[in-house]
Amino acid sequence: MSAANKFTHLDENQQPHMVDVTEKDVTRRTATARAIVQLTPEIMAQFDGQELQSKKGPVFHTAILAGIQAAKKTSDLIPLCHPLPLTKCKVTIEPVDEVRVEVQATCTTDAKTGVEMEALTAASGAALTLYDMCKALSKAIVIEDVRLLEKTGGKSGDYKA
Hints:
Elements lengths: L26 E12 L2 H4 L8 E2 L2 E2 H14 L1 H4 L8 E10 L4 E12 L4 H19 L7 E11 L6 E2 L1
Antiparallel strand pairs: 1-5, 1-6, 2-3, 4-5, 6-7
GO molecular function, one term: cyclic pyranopterin monophosphate synthase activity
Catalytic activity: (8S)-3',8-cyclo-7,8-dihydroguanosine 5'-triphosphate = cyclic pyranopterin phosphate + diphosphate
Protein name: Cyclic pyranopterin monophosphate synthase
């Protein structure tokens, strides 16, 4: 296997390790990820154009805060992620159609490694919180299409889905 085709988180003995970024330069890095959450017509019927209200409180606002918190905890959840100083994390939730919403998370850092995992974790954490906040109304909620939409910065360059 050529060096270009190797997993970066495996050493020469195929053992997991945290990638050494000691010699890398600090650069501005951004990443945007999304998750689609398929709710139900009954849940979306309670959407007032701005927010869903539940007995647990404002659903979208709570999910946004959970997404931001998840981004800040990424290295605690994903074993080989470096802890990163986030300089920005923005999470939005927008209706896509009569039953689906899109969670989008953008994270920025000035660091030696990328911020894709933080954006993906933010989108996932917000989507899971939507499920938690709405599960009393339906267990049929589906979280789908969690993916990186774009990233900038770093040695591998920019990416756009």
